[in-house]
Amino acid sequence: MKIREQIKLVNTALSGTLDLYRIWAKKHQLSYNALVILYTLDDYKTCTQKQICDWWALPKQTVHGILLDFEKKGYITIAANTRNKREKFIKFTKTGEAFASSVLGELYKMEESAMEKLGDEQRSQLLASNTKYYELLKEEMQNG
């Protein structure tokens, strides 16, 4: 198989995986972007808007709008950093934790089940290959 065909298959698998998360979000009356923000807050417990933007390559305005909606619904609190007033810390309220759990709990189980079905060896290969491809592509883009 030629390298362009392999790249196409990798990109198709990545795009398809992201589409599964979009479908899951829609099933829960969320946008894909709102889902990844929930996912991030659940993973990190406390983070900043800038961190969310950087991790997911999302526009600041998009993240800000979703965070304001979450705050209005009582899912999150946004508090100023005492050391840097421009930076705000975001974390779940109890209501937000319950909401995130209702959206993410089953998703996590399915992710974990899929990874377990790969087995240790394929899981290690997947992680190593994806990480290496990312690092090499990043290097190429920085140099090219």
From TrEMBL:
Q: Which domain of life is it from?
A: Bacteria
Q: Which residues form the HTH marR-type domain?
A: 1-135
Q: Which PROSITE patterns match?
A: HTH_MARR_2
Record key words, sorted: DNA-binding, Transcription, Transcription regulation
Transcription regulation as a keyword of this entry, yes or no, is: yes
Which residue ranges traverse the bilayer? Answer: none
The reply to whether Transcription regulation figures as a keyword in the UniProt entry is yes
InterPro entries found in the cross-reference section = HTH_MarR-typ, WH-like_DNA-bd_sf, WH_DNA-bd_sf
Protein name in UniProt: MarR family winged helix-turn-helix transcriptional regulator
